[in-house]
Backbone:
């Protein structure tokens, strides 16, 4: 009987299976990310906030966004952690992130294991059984889910500022002015004005005049990203499962009130911050001012994420090997993730230990092949950038053997 349960546990825990017919299912366990903007009220902040509101979480993460896309800070404090962390506590954002993990019903307060099961490739009924068997913390499967999923939930707060250059003032005013005008027209349209005015207000870069095209291309921003991680450990899980958790079939008003009144248990801990400046923006593929701002901001944020991952191992993502063709290893990561010929990655095999927890064992290392690094940066295809249509980066083996599609790779320092 014990052997049977071990097999079931193994099958429920494994997030990656060997590929069939050269393809791999994208069912690996991603970290989860919620990205918001810090609007400090400086020049053009509102326009950049409008553009940021349309950004999505990078596809190497699960999207753990809530409704809030930005927070405002007009305190002028030099240390932005102070207003950020004041807001995090006041809004109880960490608890709201936990509520999302367990699909909490706003009316009844009931929780569900469905999202945990979906993201972790677990069997939801097995998680329910595991929870029912222990009023303390649950069996190893619940601990595994907490360590692997909930504990790898991150918040990224992005302070974005336009780099104001006197020589670029005319171009900047024209670029941001269009964004502001479009925003105003959208509001007017909602009140019954002619919605077609929005289209008329969207200027192409060419409309700004060839004499300032170089200034437009020099448009740049600075991004300071503050990284936080949701605190989830045995102690937090113990209190949550024991004092607060109940499902829709076991409504508990006492637990509901207790959860809503708890302002101390759930926290976001600061991991680090990174400041980057955007690279020079190519105008190829850019047709509107909105395109230019989006391209510049998104690439700068991606650059910041790369630097945060290099400095903080806990934030580094693991991605699967997609294909192996004639000893060449194909993985869907590229310039967006900061790859270069100098990059090195470890290859990890996912295993389950004797306690039923997921572990990762290094089985080798690989490096990108020169000239075969995928340009997957934002709008690279529209830009017609070299290698934008590769769809994969090709790697070669540095050490190890026996690799197969579905194994995970993660960048390492060397």
Residues:
């Amino acid at each position: 009987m014990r052997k049977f349960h071990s097999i079931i546990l193994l099958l429920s825990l494994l997030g990656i299976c060997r590929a069939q017919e050269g393809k791999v299912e994208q069912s690996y366990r991603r970290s989860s990310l919620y990205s918001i903007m810090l609007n400090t009220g400086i020049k053009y902040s509102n326009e950049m906030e409008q553009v940021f509101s349309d950004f999505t979480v990078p596809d190497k993460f699960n999207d753990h966004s809530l409704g809030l896309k930005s927070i405002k800070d007009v305190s002028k404090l030099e240390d932005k952690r102070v207003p950020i962390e004041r807001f995090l506590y006041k809004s109880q954002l960490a608890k709201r992130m936990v509520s999302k993990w367990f699909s909490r019903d706003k009316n009844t307060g009931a929780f569900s294991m469905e999202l945990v099961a979906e993201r972790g490739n677990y069997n939801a009924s097995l998680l329910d059984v595991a929870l029912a068997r222990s009023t303390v913390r649950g069996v190893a499967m619940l601990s595994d889910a907490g360590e692997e999923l909930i504990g790898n939930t991150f918040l990224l707060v992005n302070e974005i500022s336009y780099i104001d250059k006197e020589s670029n003032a005319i171009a900047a005013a024209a670029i941001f002015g269009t964004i502001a005008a479009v925003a105003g027209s959208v509001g007017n349209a909602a009140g019954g004005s002619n919605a077609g005015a929005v289209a008329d207000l969207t200027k192409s870069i060419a409309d700004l005049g060839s004499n300032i095209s170089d200034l437009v291309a020099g448009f740049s921003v600075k991004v300071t990203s503050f990284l936080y991680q949701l605190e989830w450990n045995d102690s937090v899980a113990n209190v949550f499962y024991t004092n607060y958790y109940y499902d829709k079939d076991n409504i508990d008003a006492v637990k509901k009130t207790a959860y809503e009144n708890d302002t101390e248990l759930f926290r976001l801990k600061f991991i680090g911050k990174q400041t980057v400046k955007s690279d020079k923006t190519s105008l190829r593929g850019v047709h509107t001012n909105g395109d230019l701002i989006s391209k510049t901001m998104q690439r700068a944020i991606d650059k910041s994420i790369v630097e945060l991952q290099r400095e903080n191992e806990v934030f580094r993502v693991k991605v699967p090997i997609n294909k192996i063709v004639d000893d060449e290893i194909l993985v869907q990561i590229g310039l967006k993730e900061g790859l270069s010929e100098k990059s090195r990655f470890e290859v990890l095999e996912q295993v389950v230990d004797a306690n039923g927890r997921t572990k990762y064992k290094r089985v080798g290392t690989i490096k990108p092949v020169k000239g075969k690094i995928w340009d997957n940066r934002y709008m690279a295809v529209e830009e017609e950038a070299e290698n934008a249509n590769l769809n994969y980066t090709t790697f070669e083996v540095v050490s190890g053997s026996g690799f197969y599609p579905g194994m995970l790779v993660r960048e390492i320092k060397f």
